[in-house]
């Protein structure tokens, strides 16, 4: 790794070549190139001024991020209008980022959050993006993850498994694909969100079998000639959908339905040589959020291969370079994290950059994390398939294993939708 000064110098060189290197210029469109150059140039100027004088630059700005998350949670009831349908998501991004930083909210605040998410629950099952909104698979995933992170009795009680199962069947198509909402669009996010909720809530095996009949084959059809997954069969491979594809398949124990060697090659090529972070698709720009979407795909794919190929014991991407990109280029001094230099902070990027750093630190060896820089930079681990703490996954699955499976009896038979 070298001394801190060497590390900073390396990053300085990387940013410099990012601006001036011809090869980089030729692989981006001119509009994007201009945007990148001006934002990176600003960052480059700032680096020149402070790089060698402020060693704190290689530290996670813990307090600033905690302050930002706390302030955003308190603003939730009156969140920006443009985020009105993403309020369940905002809760999840805040709780997940906070727990990675070992930042705990007090019980009263968490009780308010549970109450808020209960208000987002739809009478027809599942959760909407905000109170009184139609159920949608994405906020359902966000709400279920949030309630499992909180993990109190009251939080678990806010999840109504029988109506949730009915909602899942109502958005399933007969080929095993899932719409995001009733009469909505079909893509691999839908399949992943449905599978993740079903597994986390430990639905009985016969329900899982019926709900996901054909789903693994449908997801496998989303893998493209490049090796990554598109949103639906025939669409361009993209990091976000690729995560959904392989995580969904892995949760169903059907990862062997896709070409994992091609997937691994495509995914590893998404790590940018200069920046150290990941791009989401071929010939596009680096973005901090892919630290999770692409970063988690790599250990997931490796884990599904490890029985087959013993060479898969070490994380194949450069975990140090990814941490450098996030720590040095994606932190706002006022709190929160970003896509790339020049962008404003937001909750989505705060959650997924930190989740990616956690993956980079913990995927190599559970007992000895690969932490770049000061030990203060160590984050708590995250479960790569659900992106909540591993201990929350275990607690939720254990809690719901004790639930009474007969709660599903007497409801409308799930198999009606197939007929
Ligand atoms: C669980 C769940 C809901 C997962 C969501 C997965 C996810 C992030 C999908 C990304 C969708 C997409 C095509 C973004 C492209 O944006 P862009 O063109 O602005 O970005 P780009 O230039 O980086 O491709
Ligand atoms: Zn992003």
What does this structure look like?
The protein has 419 residues and is mostly helical. It has a domain at 30-76 and 270-388: Glycosyltransferase (Alpha/alpha barrel). Helix content is 52%, strand content 0%. It has helices at 4-20, 22-26, 30-50, 62-74, 87-100, 107-120, 137-150, 153-157, 161-170, 188-200, 205-211, 215-220, 239-251, 260-268, 290-305, 319-329, 347-362, 390-401. Mean pLDDT is 87; it is low at 18-31, 48-53 and 410-419. The structure holds farnesyl diphosphate and zinc ion (ZN). The site of zinc ion has 4 residues, from loops. It holds the Pfam family Prenyltrans. Heterodimer of FNTA and FNTB. This is Protein farnesyltransferase subunit beta.
Task: Spell out the blueprint of helices and strands.
Blueprint: H1 4-20, H2 22-26, H3 30-50, H4 62-74, H5 87-100, H6 107-120, H7 137-150, H8 153-157, H9 161-170, H10 188-200, H11 205-211, H12 215-220, H13 239-251, H14 260-268, H15 290-305, H16 319-329, H17 347-362, H18 390-401
This protein binds farnesyl diphosphate and zinc ion.
**Main pleated sheet:** none
| Ligands bound to this protein structure | farnesyl diphosphate, zinc ion
Helix content: 40-55%
**At the first level of CATH, what is the class of the domain at 30-76 and 270-388?**
Mainly Alpha
Mean pLDDT: 87
Shape: globular
**Unreliable runs, pLDDT <50, ≥5 residues?**
18-31, 48-53, 410-419
The total count of helices amounts to 18
Which sequence of SSEs, written as H and E, runs from N to C? HHHHHHHHHHHHHHHHHH
CATH fold-level assignment of the domain at 30-76 and 270-388: Glycosyltransferase
Beta strands, count? 0
Beta-strand content estimate: under 5%
What is the second-level CATH architecture of the domain at 30-76 and 270-388?
Answer: Alpha/alpha barrel
Distance between the termini: 61 Å
Question: Strand pairing plus helix content: what structural class?
Answer: mainly alpha
User: What value does the Rg take, in angstroms?
Assistant: 21 Å
């Amino acid at each position: 790794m070298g001394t801190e000064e060497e590390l900073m110098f390396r990053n300085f060189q990387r940013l410099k070549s990012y601006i001036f290197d011809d090869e980089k210029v030729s692989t981006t469109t001119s509009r994007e190139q201009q945007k990148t150059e001006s934002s990176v140039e600003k960052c480059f100027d700032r680096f020149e001024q402070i790089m060698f004088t402020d060693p704190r630059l290689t530290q996670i700005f813990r307090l600033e991020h905690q302050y930002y998350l706390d302030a955003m949670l308190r603003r939730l009831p009156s969140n920006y209008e443009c985020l009105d349908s993403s309020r369940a998501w905002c809760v999840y991004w805040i709780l997940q980022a906070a727990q990675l930083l070992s930042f705990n909210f007090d019980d009263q605040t968490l009780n308010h959050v549970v109450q808020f998410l209960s208000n987002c629950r739809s009478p027809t099952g599942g959760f909407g993006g905000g109170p009184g909104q139609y159920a949608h698979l994405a906020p359902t995933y966000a709400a279920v993850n949030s309630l499992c992170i909180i993990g109190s009795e009251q939080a678990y009680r806010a999840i109504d498994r029988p109506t949730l199962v009915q909602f899942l069947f109502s958005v399933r198509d007969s080929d095993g694909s899932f719409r995001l909402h009733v009469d909505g669009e079909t893509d691999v996010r839908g399949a992943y969100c449905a599978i993740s909720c079903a597994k986390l809530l430990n639905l009985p095996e016969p329900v899982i079998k019926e709900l996901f009949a054909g789903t693994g084959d449908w997801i496998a059809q989303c893998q493209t000639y490049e090796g990554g997954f598109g949103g639906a069969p025939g669409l361009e491979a993209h990091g976000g959908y690729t995560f959904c594809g392989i995580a969904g398949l892995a949760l169903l124990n059907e990862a062997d339905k896709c070409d994992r060697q091609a997937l691994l090659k495509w995914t590893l090529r998404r790590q940018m040589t200069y920046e150290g972070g990941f791009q989401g698709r071929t010939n596009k720009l680096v973005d901090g959020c892919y630290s999770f979407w692409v970063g988690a795909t790599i250990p997931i794919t490796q884990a599904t291969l490890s029985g087959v190929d013993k060479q898969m014991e070490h994380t194949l991407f450069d975990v140090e370079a990814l941490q450098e990109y996030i720590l040095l280029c994606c932190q706002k001094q006022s709190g929160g994290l970003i896509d790339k230099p020049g962008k404003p902070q937001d909750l989505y990027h705060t959650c997924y950059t930190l989740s990616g750093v956690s993956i980079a630190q913990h995927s190599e060896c559970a007992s000895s994390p690969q932490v770049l820089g000061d030990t203060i930079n160590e984050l708590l681990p995250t479960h790569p398939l659900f992106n909540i703490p591993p201990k929350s996954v275990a607690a939720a699955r254990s809690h719901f294993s004790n639930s009474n499976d007969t709660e599903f009896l007497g409801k409308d038979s799930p198999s009606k939708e197939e007929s």
